[in-house]
Design a protein that fits this description.
Layout: H1 3-21, E1 35-36, E2 42-45, H2 52-65, E3 69-74, H3 82-89, E4 96-101, H4 105-108, H5 114-130, E5 137-140, H6 147-150, H7 154-170, E6 175-181, H8 185-197, E7 204-208, H9 230-233, H10 237-250, E8 256-258, H11 265-269, H12 275-293, E9 298-303, E10 312-313, E11 341-342, H13 344-355, E12 360-364, E13 371-377, E14 381-388, H14 402-407, E15 409-411, E16 429-434, E17 459-464, E18 468-474, H15 477-487, E19 502-503, E20 506-513, E21 517-524, H16 529-534, H17 541-554, E22 562-568, E23 577-582, E24 587-588, H18 589-595, E25 601-602, E26 605-606, H19 607-623, E27 626-627, E28 636-641, E29 644-649, E30 656-657, H20 668-679, H21 684-697, H22 704-730
Parallel strand pairs: 2-3, 2-9, 3-4, 4-5, 5-6, 6-7, 7-8, 8-9
Antiparallel strand pairs: 1-12, 10-11, 12-13, 13-14, 14-16, 15-16, 17-18, 18-22, 19-20, 20-21, 21-23, 22-23, 24-28, 25-26, 27-30, 28-29
Helix pairs in contact: 1-8, 5-7, 10-12, 12-13, 19-21, 20-22
Amino acid sequence: MKMNDTLVNLKYLAEYLFFYFNSGIKHQELPNRSHLVPEDFIGINIASNDELETDDYIFDRIHELGVKNLRIYFTYTDFNNHKSRLLKKLKDFDGNLIINISPPIKDASSITTEHGILVWKNFVEKLLNEFKEIKFMVEIGSTINRQTWTRISYQGFYKLWSVAFNVCRIKNRKIMGPNVTDFEPFVNFGILKSLKAKHQLPDLLSNNMFAERTIQPEPYDPRVFIRKFPQCFKFDLYKKSAVYKFLAQEFNIKGIISPCSFWSIKRIGRLKDQPEQQRAKYITRYFVMLAAKGNFEKAFWGALICHREGLIHNGLNEPEYPKIEQVTFYPEAKGYVSNYHITQSFRALQFFNQTVPGSTFIKSYSDNPAIQILEFETDTEIFHIAWTQNNYIADIQKFYHINQLNTATSKDKYGNNINQPTSINDDPIYLFWPKESRPSLIQKPFIYPHAFVEQSKENFYFLHDEYWSGITQAKDIETYKLILKYCHPDILLPPDKDQSLRKSRNAVWIKDIPNFGKVVIKKPMSIYRHKRFLDRNRPNKSLRAWNGTHILLSKGINAAKPIAVFNKKHDPSSLENYYISLYKEGYSFNDLALHFKNDAIFKGFTMRQIFEQCAEFINKMHSRGVFFNDLSAGNILMLIENNNFHFELIDTGRVKNFNSSLNYKTRKTQRMKDVVRLLNKFDWEIRNIFLKHYFALNNKKPSFFTKLQLVKYDVFVNSKRLRKKILKKLS
């Protein structure tokens, strides 16, 4: 960005802050009650290619989605290609068409010259003349606050806007803009103020209403003002939407449109397992929130066909993705129709579009941003859409009477019928009732305290009795009852030491549940007083183990399957709690350390095979933002199945989840703390195998100082053992 544009941004920011603090924006964190969601609320960005059959495929998918709003990017070189062909076929389209116009990047730098302005004016006139029989609105500019993408300064933008505005007014075409991306309302404010002075305000305000594209749509945006203090400003999707409503009102603009938003599969996949399924959740949650707030007339998804953010995957691989994300320019639908396939996100948006647009939003039952229960109404039915933020969970029977749940028709985000839900989690559910059976909630929604869950195909069941609370994960109610019969906390008593896997600070033992299998039960036996004081506001040890396991599973990292967690109510000792996980026969790395002292082969696998694969496993965990914090050899298991092996983590109570990858450069300390603990019991031959492969995965080589960290930890462990021996002899 040029210095001049930086100064312009600072000027816009100062003006906007004055406007913000003198408006009513500050308290807009909830959706607006009782308003109609437009029937044509959803839109999609489209582009074709040189293959004629792609056009038909696009129109079939548009019809399947049921969208009534289309947007197409058009520039100088598009008059004789697939863009023109596609536009001509849209002559009879029964909906709204937006043509976004911008100069090509190679011509952007000359837009302020006399020749550049003339070329731009001729382009706009030719566009409006050539397609005069087609009904469309013109959007001027794209992501204008991203000069690194567009190569257009603010000065250049004002010139191209003025020219296009005048031509469109002569041709009686409505105008949208200024197409600011992300949440930078000060840019909108400054530009609209300048355009007002020139009497060139748009008919509709356009802003790419993104949530943060790597995370879920609900949290407060950490990028606003001060990254470390998002709670101070509380700019969530609701409040950001309200900001643009206030801006439109301030400048007497009649409507607001979000012409593009998306979640990139690649970005989600950096931190989450099953990124496509995760994106389908985000799509539903995002559009439901935007519809419930009621400030935007229309909201568009990004590219229809694209392998990274498209609703339809084009069959191509990541290296073939364009350098500039298609939020700015969507030049063509790459690939061949024969390789296209519909994604889960397509189905989620399709069902949303069949259900929410045209309904009336009634109210939100929650003022807690961690859980949403939103009520909509049609002429014939009442429906609720409910979910939590990622990895939270709530007991649905705490909010609805059981007879209300029994009479509801329950559907998942794709519109498939589901059995009566047992919980509310990050996967949205739709609940439908006849209009005469309007439901009422027992109490305000809240999440289960301190619990972290990874969404699975199984159900979550809640225990609430006089003495205990807890969560059990089971495939059905019968399995839940079976687990509770043999593992209710009232009947769980730690066995003697000789019958336990461990019995010191924690008791760990195995229990066999008939017709289910073996489980491992863990219960704390003693906690130092200072630890009890320090942990007084934290989850208890069993909940920390449950949470740590679910964090790992949510990242696609193998861990022993969690079965249940139970907590005694009003327990000042913090000892009356149990964590239960599935037991599997495996070999701990302690076993491997002993074995490899005498034999280079373990169960048919070489040291190199085992430890290179282990390095990949640990690196994956770190790359997905997880620091294990207790990665001793005894906490990683090697499981052998069908002549193959994989790894599984246990004792997960100290797991720490970061919101970004444990980049080697910025999180070297956490990475190496895990690595040195894991390798402590192994000789240098094995250490070198692991380190060489682990560092190669990060495009690095282990240094002398890296190996020195292992030596220092060896000295620490050996001195600790020696102290214990001396103290034992003295006692």
